[in-house]
From TrEMBL:
Matches recorded under NCBIfam families: CG0192_rel (NF047744)
Name the UniProt record assigns to this protein: Maltokinase N-terminal cap domain-containing protein
Keywords (A to Z) from UniProt: ATP-binding, Kinase, Nucleotide-binding, Transferase
InterPro entries per the UniProt record, alphabetical: Mak_N_cap
Lineage, highest ranks first: Bacteria, Bacillati, Actinomycetota, Actinomycetes, Propionibacteriales
Pfam families per UniProt: Mak_N_cap
Keyword Transferase applies: yes
Domain Maltokinase N-terminal cap per the UniProt entry, residue ranges: 20-101
Amino acid sequence: MGIVHRATLTPSKQELVATWLPTQTWAEGLVVAEKVAEYRFDDPAGEVGVETILWRTTDGALLQVPLTYRAAPLPAAEEHLVTTAHHSVLGERWVYDGCGDPVWAATLVTAVLTGAEQSPMFFEDGGTRIDIPARMHVRGSGSEASGPPIDAVDSVIHSGVVTTLRAGSTEIELARVVDAPLGDGARLVGRVGDAPDETVLAVVRTA
C-alpha cells in the first residue's frame, strides 16, 4: 500500500515521457496525447517509487511506460535514465525506465508469480486516510509463495514494441504497446476502467 503525496513534479510526467519517447527505438513516430491509467507495486524496502503508466497516443495506440523514482542515481544505469525531476515534497528525483531498474523487475515478477494485484493507493488529509480509486486493475496469474530475488538487470533488448529483459535466470517480456503479442509464461493481465476484456501486459519466465 502506498501513499500519494499531493505534490508537483517538474517536469510533469507527461512532459518527461514526451521528451524521452523520441529517443526510444520502440516508440518511433509515437506521440503522447493523454494519460489513461496507472498501476503501482510497492518496493519492499520503501525506497523506490514504482509506477507503470498507460498513455494514449495521437494515433490511438495505448503505450505502457514503467517508471521508477529514486532519491539518488542507480549505479551503472545511465542508459535507462529518463530524466531528473523536482518533486515539491521529496526533492530531486532520478526517474528511470523501469525495464532497467531491478526494483521494478523484482516487484513485477513477484506480482506475476504470486498472483498479486496492484498496490492500493491513498493520500492523507488532516490525518485521515483517503483511498484513491484505481483506474486500472492488474493481477498476476501465478500462485507461488514468492518470486526469485532480483539484484540486477543483466540485459534489455527491444524488438519492435516488445521489450525483453533478463535478470539472472528470470526473463520478462513487456508489451510497450498494449495488445502486442507476447510469448508463453506466467502473466500480468490488466483491465482499464470498465473495459470488458483483460489484456496481457507482461510475461515472466523463470529457469
